[in-house]
């Protein structure tokens, strides 16, 4: 899981917001390649793509999932993403439909200039995902990259504070979030989506950078809200939010060494050190 470390602590992270087409893996991978090349030209060093970016989201049934999913690593989508990362010298976190034997997972792949690094399987499944995928069984891994320690969450994982707390406690400094946010009840007249509020709060309470890459469009009647965002460890956006309906690349140069300092609030208080583990574990 480890990658050779260096002293580099500053990195330019990019989130890609676009519209995958369900069932059209060739189209989706071509769009990813086009956007990855653009982001790289703009200075991106780590790229975050939406949830199920290779396959689309609104599957009709398990047979459609089976036709679009592949092994991670080694499947057709994973091979394209890893080749692209090697060619561009870029770290890529992408949502991907994973097949493992007769089981299917809503997963995220991490690859870089050296090829495949690791994967994460979504822990908290949303709505019809429960009919199509198995719940994640790899925990919440943290990956050592040359510029810092990276965790991954996917979409509905962000509604559980434990996701980010566990990642922070195991050393994550940046959490990459491939997501397909949908409209939430009561949000019709809200100034910002609940998803942005939750991830700003998670960044603030854990002293984390969080980079969320959402999709756009309406797929088989299901709308998606866009509004991708990159949040700093004090909870304030460092890029975005993006629009609700346009293809966009957000970029932010972030200093992961600032996480340690941010978590120390004053001479008495530390965001993680003040936890009352004797009371609530």
Automatic annotation (TrEMBL):
Q: Which InterPro entries match?
A: Aliph_Amidase/BUP, C-N_Hydrolase, C-N_Hydrolase_sf
Q: Does the keyword Electron transport apply?
A: no
Q: Which Gene3D superfamilies match?
A: Carbon-nitrogen hydrolase
**One GO MF term:** hydrolase activity, acting on carbon-nitrogen (but not peptide) bonds, in linear amides
Q: Which domain of life is it from?
A: Bacteria
Q: Which UniProt keywords apply?
A: Hydrolase
Asked if the Swiss-Prot or TrEMBL record annotates the protein with the keyword Hydrolase, the reply is yes
Indicate the segments forming the CN hydrolase domain, all copies.
11-256
Xref: CDD domains: nitrilase_2
Query: What PANTHER family does the record point to?
Result: BETA-UREIDOPROPIONASE (PTHR43674:SF2), NITRILASE C965.09-RELATED (PTHR43674)
- Protein's recorded name: Aliphatic amidase amiE
Name the source organism: Rhizobium freirei PRF 81
């Amino acid at each position: 899981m480890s990658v050779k470390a260096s002293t580099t602590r500053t990195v330019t992270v990019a989130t890609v917001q676009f519209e995958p087409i369900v069932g059209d893996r060739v189209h989706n991978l071509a769009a990813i390649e086009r956007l990855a090349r653009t982001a790289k030209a703009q200075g991106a060093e780590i790229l975050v793509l939406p949830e199920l970016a290779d396959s689309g989201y609104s599957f009709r049934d398990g047979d459609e999932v089976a036709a679009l999913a592949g092994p991670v690593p080694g499947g057709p989508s994973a091979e394209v993403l890893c080749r692209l990362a090697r060619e561009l010298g870029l770290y890529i976190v992408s949502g991907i439909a994973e097949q493992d034997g007769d089981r299917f997972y809503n997963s995220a792949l991490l690859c870089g200039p050296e090829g495949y690094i690791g994967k994460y399987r979504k822990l908290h499944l949303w709505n019809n995902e429960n009919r199509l995928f198995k719940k994640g069984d790899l925990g919440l891994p943290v990956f050592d990259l040359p510029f810092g320690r990276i965790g991954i969450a996917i979409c509905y994982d962000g509604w559980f504070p434990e996701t980010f707390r566990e990642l922070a406690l195991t050393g994550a400094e940046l959490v990459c979030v491939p997501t397909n946010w949908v409209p939430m009840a009561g949000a019709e007249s809200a100034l910002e989506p609940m998803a942005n509020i939750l991830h700003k709060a998670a960044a603030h309470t854990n002293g984390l950078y969080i980079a969320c890459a959402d999709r756009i469009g309406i797929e088989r009647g299901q709308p998606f809200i866009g509004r991708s965002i990159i949040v700093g460890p004090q909870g304030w956006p460092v890029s975005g939010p993006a629009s609700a309906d346009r293809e966009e690349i957000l970029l932010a140069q972030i200093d992961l060494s600032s996480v340690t300092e941010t978590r120390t609030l004053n001479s008495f208080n530390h965001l993680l050190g003040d936890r009352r583990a004797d009371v609530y574990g």
